[in-house]
Design brief:
Blueprint: H1 11-39, H2 42-63, H3 65-79, H4 90-131, H5 143-160, H6 170-197, H7 200-226, H8 241-259, H9 261-282, H10 291-309
Length: about 325
């Protein structure tokens, strides 16, 4: 059954899925960041992560009838020009996100990475919903949604207060913001593609194929400029980033119609921040905000999602 005729996911379940996406994103960021540190090359780490995810998706697409049917619809849609080129470009945002993880997270920590993503994702989600770019069409930018987005930005400002960014290069602070804006656009784009191919499996496959190609080109250029990376580490968990990415990108593609781009982003923010605090507390990095600062960020981010998600009703005048 296609996306258009599929029943809607209950709001609470869809929001829970958004939070789970955030948790998985934080875990993936730490894994890819640590792989980048071991290799001393964030671009090669990103290729390994995205490339392993692509292999998984090729196997799944070949093994399941839905994957084969979705790929056939993809080829037919491209040939008949019913699927425009920009619907195939979601992998560019995924490539930027994974590259940023490999380049920065191992040094600045998951929390600071997440804070930048929050800023980009919140603003981008509001704009994309208002423009009707996502598969849900135009989503009203109501007062609660604006307040929720503003609170998410307050959480961001708490992260940069004090010495949290002391000694961190400017590009390490800017890249996560760009990645966050790209994530919101990627979720909306993948959701639109999912409507055309009628399965999140094929939409996710396209995402990983495009991202792997871009990252491979960047890695080749980078290695040519600075030399080969360090030998591959033996720890198997360092190679799980791609598999985690397959799961959360497919999940986001499946639920974005039921959440809207902004709410999906805010739910993911909560999952990211909560997981980030735990990860950075157990596994600290050279820089990052303190525990009290991180807890304040998480509390405000949680409040932002509650405000944006609760269906507030206006009281009728009697």
């Amino acid at each position: 059954m296609g996306w258009v005729t599929a029943p809607r996911i209950p709001a609470a379940l869809a929001l829970g899925g958004a939070v789970a996406i955030g948790v998985m994103t934080a875990v993936q960021a730490r894994i890819n960041g640590q792989l980048g540190v071991h290799l001393d090359d964030g671009f090669v780490a990103a290729v390994i992560s995205f490339g392993s995810g692509l292999v998984i998706l090729i196997v799944l697409s070949a093994a399941f009838p839905a994957g084969r049917a979705g790929f056939a619809r993809l080829v037919e849609g491209i040939r008949e020009r019913r699927i425009p080129w920009w619907m195939l470009a979601g992998g560019a945002a995924g490539a930027l996100t994974v590259a940023t993880q490999g380049l920065a997270v191992g040094l600045i920590g998951v929390s600071l990475f997440t804070v930048g993503v929050v800023a980009g994702q919140t603003v981008s989600g509001l704009l994309l919903d208002r423009a009707g770019f996502g598969p849900a069409g135009i989503v009203a930018v109501t007062v609660p949604r604006l307040i929720g987005g503003a609170l998410a930005l307050v959480a961001v400002s708490l992260a940069v207060a004090g010495d949290g960014l002391a000694g961190v290069p400017l590009w390490m602070a800017v890249l996560p913001v760009l990645a966050g804006a790209g994530i919101a656009w990627q979720q909306a784009t993948n959701g639109r593609l999912r409507q055309r191919v009628q399965t999140p499996l094929t939409a996710t496959l396209v995402n990983f194929a495009g991202g792997t190609i871009l990252l491979a080109i960047a890695a080749v250029v980078h290695v040519g400029l600075v030399g080969a990376p360090r030998p591959l580490p033996a720890d198997p968990w360092l190679y799980l980033g791609g598999a985690i990415g397959v799961v959360y990108i497919a999940l986001g593609t499946a639920i974005v119609r039921d959440t809207g781009v902004l709410l999906l982003g805010l739910g993911a923010v909560v999952g990211q921040l909560c997981a980030s605090v735990l990860i950075d507390a157990v596994w600290p990095t050279p820089t990052g905000p303190g525990l009290v600062q991180e807890l304040a960020m998480v509390t405000i981010a949680l409040l932002s999602v509650v405000v944006a998600a609760v269906p507030w009703r206006r009281r009728r005048a009697r």
